[in-house]
Amino acid sequence: MVTFVVVIHITLCILMVAFVLLQVGKGSNMGAFLGGGSSQTIFGPSGPGTFMGKLTAGVAVLFMLTSLLLAHPSFNKPQQAQKQTPIIIDTSSPQQQTPPPVLPTP
């Protein structure tokens, strides 16, 4: 199951990169970058969106869903890194404290 989802995830990744690279840019001059080529319509100068734009958005949504599906098992596992070994303190024999060193008097 996981292998199948990984194959779908990688395929979606490659498709998304290809679809983004195949799309035509909205403007390549500085005026378009600063908003000079925009019109007052609700969707902007390019219309409501192209087929490639919608296809890219759909592939991106599927890519995110497969990402979450692949990440889900890692949230359900108990965290083994936080297991600590118990500290055993031997209280059967009392420890003797050493007296502080005595300095010779002149």
Note down, in words, how this protein is organized.
By secondary structure, the protein is mostly helical. The chain has a domain at 1-24 and 51-71. The chain has three helices and no strands. The protein has helices spanning 2-22, 30-33, 51-76. Helix 1 runs antiparallel to helix 3 (51-76). It is elongated. The mean pLDDT is 76.
List the helices and strands and how they pair.
Blueprint lengths: L1 H21 L7 H4 L17 H26 L30
Helix pairs in contact: 1-3
Which key features would you list for this structure?
106 residues; mainly alpha
Helix content: 40-55%
Total helices: the number is 3
Largest sheet: none
The amount of beta strand, in percent, is under 5%
Shape estimate: elongated
Number of strand elements: 0
Order of helices and strands: HHH
Provide the structure class.
mainly alpha
Low-confidence stretches: none
What is the radius of gyration? 32 Å
What's the end-to-end separation, in Å? 84 Å
Question: What is the average of the pLDDT values?
Answer: 76
In short:
This protein is mostly helical. The protein has helices spanning 2-22, 30-33, 51-76.
